[in-house]
Specification:
Blueprint: E1 13-15, E2 26-29, E3 37-40, E4 44-48, E5 53-57, E6 63-66, E7 77-83, E8 88-93, E9 98-102, E10 107-110, H1 112-115, E11 126-132, E12 135-140, E13 144-148, E14 153-158, E15 171-175, E16 178-182, E17 188-192, E18 205-208, E19 214-218, E20 221-225, E21 230-235, E22 238-244, E23 249-255, E24 258-263, E25 267-270, E26 276-280, E27 289-295, E28 298-303, E29 308-312, E30 318-320, E31 333-336, E32 341-344, E33 361-365, E34 368-372, E35 383-388, E36 395-400, E37 404-409, E38 412-417, E39 437-442, E40 448-452, E41 459-462, E42 467-470, E43 488-489, E44 495-498, E45 504-508, E46 514-518, E47 529-534, E48 540-544, E49 547-551, H2 555-559, E50 569-572, E51 575-578, E52 585-590, E53 596-600, E54 603-607, E55 614-618, E56 630-635, E57 641-646, E58 649-654, E59 668-670, E60 682-685, E61 692-697, E62 702-707, E63 712-715, E64 728-735, E65 742-749
Antiparallel strand pairs: 1-10, 2-58, 3-4, 4-5, 5-6, 7-8, 8-9, 9-10, 11-12, 12-13, 13-14, 15-16, 16-17, 17-18, 19-20, 20-21, 21-22, 23-24, 24-25, 25-26, 27-28, 28-29, 29-30, 31-32, 32-33, 33-34, 35-36, 36-37, 37-38, 39-40, 40-41, 41-42, 43-44, 44-45, 45-46, 47-48, 48-49, 50-51, 52-53, 53-54, ...
Length: 751
């Protein structure tokens, strides 16, 4: 059995997507533009991105995605295979996780490889999946694992290195009764597939010592690639050079009765006589080809940046069939306006070293995702956060931690501000051209405030025409290591500015440039402050690299000369504990009910307004989060939807904490009617704060009563939390705190 040396039992986890409760709904916003592998059936094509997969029915064009919200808890997808006999899609991952997706939607996670203690984590990656007679041969960085597709059980493991040691296997194929494997260091090896003792390394012979990458059997001949530009034939004890291509061969496979060779910019199809049948050189736009399959007379070409294309081989008509999504899964920062959600992918490391890669930007609109490629960003790299003008959501500033400040108008990059055309300055410690901009926020007068790191005049404002600088040299000297986070602005105009090594800076130019520095001497657990937020009660919440602190009120900056940060002590199992003890908090968001969301490397936390109660702790293990590393959180104040940007994709939790309305004119109840089988909550939204809500039956008997905190309340359709109410019409009476505003709604419940 797999891992039989130390792991005698089989682990099988059937993922049932209950997570926390049926009524809690999640949304997924994954990118499918980097196609890592393809699979096929007679009428469907299967494509894998890094974190999710999708399929298209080639007969009717129906497109379906399968994500973590459906239970596909991928961890860097690396291989894909479809078995038509049992209707099962096999998904390999970089950490050894093996996932089986059944046609009925159920998902089985096999963690045998993941839990194998004798194999280092770095060697558990799954490289390729090949099937023979119902057995999947899984090429891994340690050898080959076998898996029975019918019984969902692992079998023997083949360690093919010297004396049975681990050796990386990249590919496998069946040819003339032998199983052949390719390895980078041990060459091409083979053994009789009928041999019952293949777990004995002595049964495997070396065909050739050359390190090769991929192998396949076609037309009575065995072919291999060398991870470069050459295709070879394999003979008895030798390999023979056969064809040379202008660019690297990315994929070699048999599909639709043809041998498909996919290079960086071509797909060539050969018949069994190795005569070229057709060649695809373009998909209508620049793209790097990754892989290809043929289904129903169409060629499907996967690319590394533009997703999946279908090409009609009869007339060469081309169509991109990639599901809607952002450019990349590794989202660094997001920002929400009433009608748009922006996402950027550049950012910086823990110590604020910029990611110089040229990534684009994405925005989610009511019509779907609209992506801006890097080529249209006027050279702006390392986009780290977004500032949206609250008075005009069509005016957006993308803050670059290398290139300056990019102004985008109506979704089109307009001007890139840097030290040559604005008040921005390049970093001063070594006279480089880097313009490090972070932390934009608009004040009530419509002025944009940003931090220009590693400069003497680090704080800057821009009113659309004029730049103003504020000298921070005495506050935080512009050393190579001095960086900033995203500031928060309170109602007095005070800027609360995180810094990486000096703590939290509070600054107000309206009070004669008054400033106060809050650091370890003032109560912080760490001078590395990542984030800051101000709640609805003007309390300051400070997220550091090793814990949470609060300042009781923003007003203290106005009245006091010093500020003290305090921890929050909670009772856990009757024992006093510090809230978020030693957690590195990367973002803090305040929802419409004054609850606090914390982004950490251990998932996302939601706590009550005073921090005394942890309402949720979402992790990859108990929710659809694709990763526990949360880079950013955003909230739709109208709907209560909470977005989590992680290093492996974005999902959302459709919460209920919405911002309160100004009046009761927009109160609505949903679902309405409540139909048989519904197990969730009735949501009453569009409320004002502190509204009284009473629910009665048609005869006036009270069944539920509560007071709103924010814009939404939930009713579980039970009479005071006990028994579910019977079918009928129920009246909802809503009144403001002082009784001057009232509203009456009805909801029908059908059991």
């Amino acid at each position: 059995m797999l891992m039989k040396r130390v792991l005698p039992s089989i682990y099988c986890l059937l993922f049932t997507l209950t997570f926390l409760a049926q009524e809690q709904q999640w949304g997924s916003y994954f990118s499918y533009y980097n196609i890592v592998d393809l699979a096929e059936s007679s009428s469907r094509v299967f494509a894998a991105g890094e974190s999710a997969i999708f399929t298209q029915n080639t007969l009717n064009g129906e497109l379906k995605t399968i994500t973590s919200v459906d239970g596909l808890k991928a961890d860097g997808i690396t291989a894909l295979y479809y078995n038509a006999q049992y209707g099962r899609t096999l998904v390999g991952n970089s950490n050894g996780l093996f996932i089986v997706v059944n046609n009925d939607g159920s998902i089985v996670n096999k963690i045998d490889i993941v839990q194998e203690a004798t194999i280092p984590a770095s060697r558990k990656k799954i490289n390729h999946i090949m099937e023979y007679n119902g057995i999947a041969y899984i090429s891994c960085n340690f050898g080959i694992a076998t898996f029975n597709i019918a019984t969902l059980e692992f079998g023997d493991t083949y360690y093919l290195g010297p004396n049975g040691s681990e050796v990386s296997v990249t590919h496998s194929a069946i040819h003339n009764g032998y199983i052949y494997v390719t390895t980078p260091t041990a060459g091409i090896r083979r053994a009789l597939i009928s041999n019952p003792n293949l777990n004995d390394y002595n049964q495997w012979e070396q065909v050739h010592p050359a390190g090769v990458d991929q192998i396949t059997s076609f037309g009575g001949q065995l072919y291999v690639t060398d991870n470069m530009t050459a295709l070879y034939k394999v003979g008895e004890g030798s390999i023979q050079y056969y064809l040379q291509y202008p660019t690297t061969i990315n994929d070699l496979r048999v599909s639709g009765g043809y041998l498909l060779v996919t290079t960086l910019n071509k797909v060539i199809a050969y018949n069994e006589q190795m005569q070229q049948v057709f060649q695809i050189n373009t998909v209508g736009e620049p793209a790097t080809f990754a892989n290809a399959v043929i289904v129903g007379g169409k060629l499907y070409v996967g690319t590394t940046e533009n997703g999946l294309y279908s090409v009609d081989t009869s007339n060469f008509g081309i169509q991109n069939i990639t599901p809607d999504g952002p450019l990349r899964n590794g989202i660094f920062s997001i920002e929400k306006s009433p009608n748009t959600l922006w996402a950027v992918f550049g950012g910086y490391s823990y110590d604020h070293e910029p990611n110089y890669s040229g990534y684009g930007a994405s925005r989610l609109t009511q019509e779907g995702w609209i992506n801006i490629p890097f080529e249209d960003l006027r050279g702006a790299r390392s986009l780290s956060d977004i500032t949206i003008n609250p008075a005009n959501e069509n005016e957006v500033y993308l803050n670059s931690y290398h290139s300056g400040l990019l102004k985008v108008v109506d979704g089109v990059p307009d001007v890139l501000y840097n030290d040559s055309n604005s008040g921005l300055e390049h970093e001063q410690h070594d006279n480089t051209a880097s313009n490090r901009v972070i932390g934009g926020v608009f004040d009530s007068a419509g002025k944009l405030w940003i931090m220009n790191a590693r400069t003497k005049n680090a704080l800057k404002s821009f009113n659309g025409s004029t730049w103003t600088s504020y000298n921070f040299e005495d506050i935080l000297p512009p050393t190579k290591d001095q960086e900033y986070g995203i500031m928060a602005l309170d109602k007095n105009g005070t800027k609360w500015i995180p810094s990486t090594f000096k703590g939290l800076v509070a600054f107000n130019e309206l009070l004669s440039n008054k400033y106060i520095v809050v650091n370890k001497d003032s109560g912080l657990p760490n001078n590395h402050v990542n984030c800051v937020a101000i709640d609805h009660n003007n309390r300051v919440w400070i997220g550091t690299a090793s814990g949470l602190r609060t300042i009781s009120s923003t007003e203290r900056f106005v009245t006091d000369d010093q500020l003290t940060a305090n921890n929050i002590v909670i009772l856990e199992d009757g024992i006093a504990q510090e809230l978020m003890f030693e957690q590195s908090i990367t973002d803090i968001r305040v929802d419409g009910s004054n609850n606090k969301w914390f982004a950490t490397a251990a998932g996302a936390f939601l706590v009550s307004p005073d921090g005394q109660t942890t309402l949720y702790h979402f992790t990859k293990e108990n929710s659809p989060l694709p990763s526990n590393i949360i880079n950013d959180i955003e909230i739709n104040d109208v709907t209560g939807e909470v977005f989590f940007a992680t290093d492996k994709g974005m999902v959302s939790f459709k919460g209920t904490s919405t911002s309160p309305s100004d009046d009761l004119s927009k109160v609505y109840v949903y679902p309405n009617p409540v139909r048989p089988g519904f197990e969730g909550d009735v949501k009453i939204s569009g409320l004002i704060d502190n509204a009284n809500i009473k629910v009665t039956d048609i005869e006036g008997n009270l069944v539920y009563e509560t007071t709103s905190e924010g814009g939404t309340v939930l009713w579980d359709t039970r009479a005071f939390g006990k028994h579910k109410v019977a079918s009928g019409v129920y009246m909802i009476f809503i009144a403001s705190e002082d009784g001057t505003e009232t509203k009456v709604k009805k909801v029908m419940i059908v059991r």
